[in-house]
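User: Need the bound-state model for zinc ion:
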Amino acid sequence: MADLRGILAAPSTRPNIRFQPTKHKVRAVIPKAFMPEGSLFDRPGGAAAAFVAFLVIAIVFFAGCGKKPLSKAELRAVTDEVVSAAQRVTGRKSEITIRPEVQPPGSGAPAELTADNIYISLADPSQAEALKQALAEIARRHKLSIAESTAGGMIRYDFSRDGNRTHAIHVVTPLAVRSRAPVSHLRGNPQLAIILDDMGHDRAAADSLLALPFPLTISVLPHLPLSAEVAEEAYRRGDQILLHLPMEPEAEGGGPEGVTREEIELRVGMNPDQVNSALEGMLETVPHAAGVNNHEGSRATADLPLMQALMPALRERNLFFIDSRTTAATVAYDAAERAGVPAASRKVFLDDTPSKEAILAQLELAARDASRDGSAIAIGHPRPATIAALAQGVPELESRGIHLVFASELVR
Ligand SMILES: [Zn+2]
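Assistant: Bound-state model below.
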């Protein structure tokens, strides 16, 4: 595997700025001619190689594609300017994260930096206009086109040249309503946590969910093109993030095309090292995860050795575990408890029947469980009927004294 550190080099180590390389497994090898460090002339035969490289570049240039894509250096210079502008506008109080995007695995193309994703939190919505002006000025200076889109309380600016996106700038204003009264004020009220599973596929569904004015626990599948983006935005909106950990189901099926299941899920027979490194890779694509719940896993959660391999890896990272209970034979909760991992179990699936009426009835069932037992966890999916039912049903539950909480508040 080629060393990507040159490509992913941090532009800055200033405070409040996190630089988070997305380590999508990049299988393609970077041709040495494109390596940012290590001159061709350092090696015997280097001059010849350099000449070949020059020829290739010249051919590409004169082949008449005519486009001059942004060089890596210029792309990074623009990123630096965006970061400086955001710091100026927010009085250096913004949390800024840069996540570089490389060509997706399996595309066959060389691994190259294609764009930077920049996440900016505004403390005050009134800063948005000044930031917009500054971004427009940067785009003009670098001859980039700029496109603005707004959804779910977020503004996104895409910079591009000749139709190739170079920067996606995500500007997020936290929902004030999410940082609400501490739980202690409402002790004694029934508590309900709602987890939305399978996040990371659907941009529009994420936008609708992030606009809902109550706290949600967003469980994001790893290794999807939108995993990091959805996790980063939901976190900045004030929601809680879980890694939706794929686990082996009872029925065998293929993974997404080109991907074997071994790469993307925990399977019976994996040893603790394999579990640990699979988990590590998944967490890199789901930033801010506070805990984990299982996706599928009817076979995996019933397998004690696998669960005993997983739990220490969660404990080490201070992650809690929510058992989705996709099988009655699950041993995951017990294994978590024995390993000292804070854990809880799902009570109600909201949308097995995906009609709004059925989901409202399930929500009512979850509220009744919460009233009887003090708390309950319900799980739904980012589908239109679920989102509509939550938008209608949750404010009504809240008005009856049911307190919406994050999953982390219900683990023991
Ligand atoms: Zn799932």
